[in-house]
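Field: sequence (string)
Field: structure_tokens (string)

Example rows 1 and 2, in order.
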Amino acid sequence: MAQNQDDQPRPARPLFGYRDVGEEVRHGRQALTRAWIVLAILIVIYFAWTLTVYFIEPGLR
């Protein structure tokens, strides 16, 4: 078996990109803008589907 020279287990690799980021990255201006864009796209898709079903389906009117 290949072990370290002093026969002790190596420490685990540190987490990268998960716990070592601060609030500035998670709640930054770019992240908030991206969240609003995603929300706007979801709203547009919802209204497009709802209005299509409302006006195309003959039984709803």
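Row 2 begins here:
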Amino acid sequence: METKETNTDAYTILESDEFDTLLDAVELMAKAQGDLLSLKRSVEELKIIMENTEPAQDDFSLQDNAAIYSAIDKVESLVESLYQDNYINDDFITGK
């Protein structure tokens, strides 16, 4: 009888609105983590592209290049901050 009650309790939990909400939250966190990692890779690739572009061959002025580097650094800093502050990483998801 205890097994039947345990199974009934488990099914009740699995069918609850709270469980659906939890699943939705986990799915959103997984998507956010994937997006953050993708953004991190994109910023790294953009930095490599900018470092490999010679200013003499570049269509942008020095001022434009400085603004681009500044924007890249700000985005990189934000991404690193989000990742290191456990907003979106394995520790946040697992609760460790």
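free_text_note (row 2): Helices lie at 2-14, 17-52, 62-84, 90-94.
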